[in-house]
Amino acid sequence: MCKLSYCGYGLIPEVSLHNTNMAVQSWIDNLKSAKKTSLIHDGKRKIHYLFADGKEMAEEYDLRTDELVVRKWRLKSTLGALGQWQVEVGEPLVGPVTSSDAEMLKENCSNPVFTRKDTKSSFQWRIRNLPHPKDVYNVSAQPPERCIVIKTSNKKYYKKFGIPDLDRSQLPLDNSALSFTHANNTLIVTYKKPKEILNLEQELMKELKKLKGTSEGDTDCKTQ
């Protein structure tokens, strides 16, 4: 029986070398077997996945660089109703702003904003509105909890988050892959992608480019 670790949003099987390769292959098999719809629009390759268990995933890739721009998930409730989209990569979803929300938005505009924006070689997170100097921050990986922790010596900011990509493939967290920098009131945390993730992403992109999608102006998407 595998042990479970916790990182604020769910229980995750503890990583072991024995099951890592199986988990990586299982995830790529799930991606390949999902029903996929492809759309080329606004300089992006947009892919919608429908998995056998009813989960949905939507991704957007830059057509020029093949970099992932957006990834979001939608789950069904126990009664079968569709839930709200949850963003994993990209800017948080913002709903329509009512007049009663305007003052609150003004008050919150200086609050830290946490987003994930990956590159081809790294997972990357940006936390805007953090004016403290770089030497105030401590960023570390916590392998037992499968989390990255950001904290400040002045106790002004604390954030704990996981890397779902590593969890899905049951890959270990490595402190040596982690780095950070700070500029223009923004803390940038970077985690170098392991070779297993790089290989998986390359294999997936080859599959996505084979999809017969539609382009701007077309109305019907083809699902494969």
Task: Report on this structure.
The chain is globular. α1 (17-33) runs parallel beside α4 (195-210). It is 21% helix and 35% strand. It has four helices and 14 strands. The protein has a five-stranded antiparallel beta sheet, covered by helices on one side. A four-stranded antiparallel beta sheet has the order 8-9-14-13, with no helix packed on it. It is an alpha+beta fold. The chain starts with a strand and ends in a 14-residue tail after the last helix.
**How many strands, which pairing sense, and closed or not: the largest β-sheet?**
5 strands, antiparallel
What form results from the Cα inertia axes?
globular
Total strand count, please?
Answer: 14
Low-pLDDT residue intervals, each spanning 5 or more residues:
1-6, 8-15, 217-223
Tell me the radius of gyration.
19 Å
Q: Whole-number average pLDDT? A: 85
Largest beta sheet: strand ordering: 3-4-5-6-7
> How many distinct helices?
4
Q: What is the helix/strand order?
A: EEHEEEEEHEEEEEHEEH
What helical percentage do the residues reach?
Answer: 10-25%
Instruction: State the separation between the terminal residues, measured CA to CA.
Output: 36 Å
